[in-house]
Amino acid sequence: MESGPLTQTLQTDAELARAVALEAGDLLRTLCATGDCSGATLGKRGDERANAAIIAHLRTARPDDFILSEEAADDRARCSARRVWVVDPLDGTREFSEERDDWAVHIGLAIDGVPVTGAVALPAAHKVFVTDDTPPEYPPLGTRPRMVVSRSRPPEIALAVAAALDAEMIPMGSAGAKAMAVVEGRADIYLHAGGQYEWDNCAPVAVALAAGLHASRIDGSALVYNCVDPLLPDLLICREELADRVLAAIRDAGQSPGG
A Gene Ontology molecular-function term (predicted)? Predict the structure, then answer.
């Protein structure tokens, strides 16, 4: 993917995020289709190529902005910048290397620490979710809330909250895929604790907030981006009408942020 007229003619940050996420997704799908690598090699090559393409486009389109990417060296000068793109070129490298469909591309923009713009592409499903989409109209909640959890290692707090709420647990891969399941209405809660970084959730949180969902730390405090240390270990995205119940269940389980 080469930088060029596409990024130079885009008018809004959301349009830019959408276009870059889609093109990175196309690149990654093509890489899968070539069949010249597999497994860990496929994942490594996907990370590298998507990262290079995304950074090239963002630097062309927004040369004065800073970029924080999982796959690039961290320029700490970003800490004094107002506008920082927070990028995960391939969220769910394991799922991608296994040629599953629950991996994602994250293009987020934080302004003064607030996740204001984002695009999350699910390339294998040919879907993209962006902050300038029309907010969805969600149906009434069912009798049992649906909670997406890691397919390999659900955090203990998620298991405790699921038990407290009698929630149906839905195993899924990447953070972006889980968050977008809530945005899309296929799940009601995504709760994580125990280790994420800003690039894992900046774009998903921006999209979730724009869709009218609740998004916070697990103590209910705001998610803040472009911190010196990009570790952001816990996250709650859920239907707004469930937020108080989920946060209460977290408190009852005695879970604190980062625990």
Answer: 3'(2'),5'-bisphosphate nucleotidase activity
